[in-house]
Amino acid sequence: DTEVTQTPKHLVMGMTNKKSLKCEQHMGHRAMYWYKQKAKKPPELMFVYSYEKLSINESVPSRFSPECPNSSLLNLHLHALQPEDSALYLCASSRLQGGETQYFGPGTRLLVL
Amino acid sequence: EDQVTQSPEALRLQEGESSSLNCSYTVSGLRGLFWYRQDPGKGPEFLFTLYSAGEEKEKERLKATLTKKESFLHITAPKPEDSATYLCAVQGLGGGYNKLIFGAGTRLAVHP
Q: Among A55, A111, B40, B83, which is most buried by a count of CB atoms within 10 Å?
């Protein structure tokens, strides 16, 4: 099984709201990722967690706050977003060794009004 | 700097008309090259991982090949359900822990 699940599928929020995106995998992967994807563009890496610790932050604004409560779960907390943050947010997971395949979830479609 | 270039940007095929998508890359030590298929509004679906020049992998109508500078995704006798964006990504020795560098993708449309 190579399934990564994400909730919610769709989210509409105002610029003053606080919301969270959730991601879960049960493949025993110890690396988890958040990507942002705009229309007709490839995914852009935001954060990487390894062994539940943040290992890469691609200079993402602080209005995005990641959290990895345990080895199966990954959250992305959103606060005071801008309309330009509207995008498809993708979660992925992989084994930790270099060259391992990343498996993506279905994504959360976010619209910021 | 690691870089991936995919061509063509868009490809229109008739059902049954075979073709190939190209992924050219420059990377400081290849750890892996990955092909994904993405339908509109959905997450990328894993297709193949290739690790060394000369390697080939097949799945149904798709075959991926790898040289030291590029990879090809060959589509044999495509069907309309093969219509999607095909993404190529590489992981190199530099650039950060398990970081994927994506190409811009090839949008494939297969018409009956």
A: B83
- Say how far apart CA A43 and CA B3 lie, in whole Å: 14
Nearest to A43 among B46, B96, B102 (CB): B102
Give the CB-side neighbour count of residue B18, counting CA atoms within 13 A: 9
d(CA B19, CA A77): 43
Query: What is the predicted pLDDT for the residue at B25?
Result: 97
| A22 inside 8 A of chain B by CB | no
Query: How many residues are there in chain B?
Result: 112
Out of B34, B100, B105, name the one closest to residue A45 (CB): B100
Q: What is the DSSP string of B64-78?
A: EEE-SSEEEEEE-S-
Residues of A in contact with B103 (CB under 8 A): 42
Mean pLDDT of B61-79: 97
Inspect the interface and report whether the beta carbons of B98 and A45 lie closer than 8 Å.
Answer: no
Mean pLDDT of chain B: 95
Q: Specify whether the backbone of B82 is left (phi greater than 0), alpha (psi in -120 to 50) or beta.
A: alpha
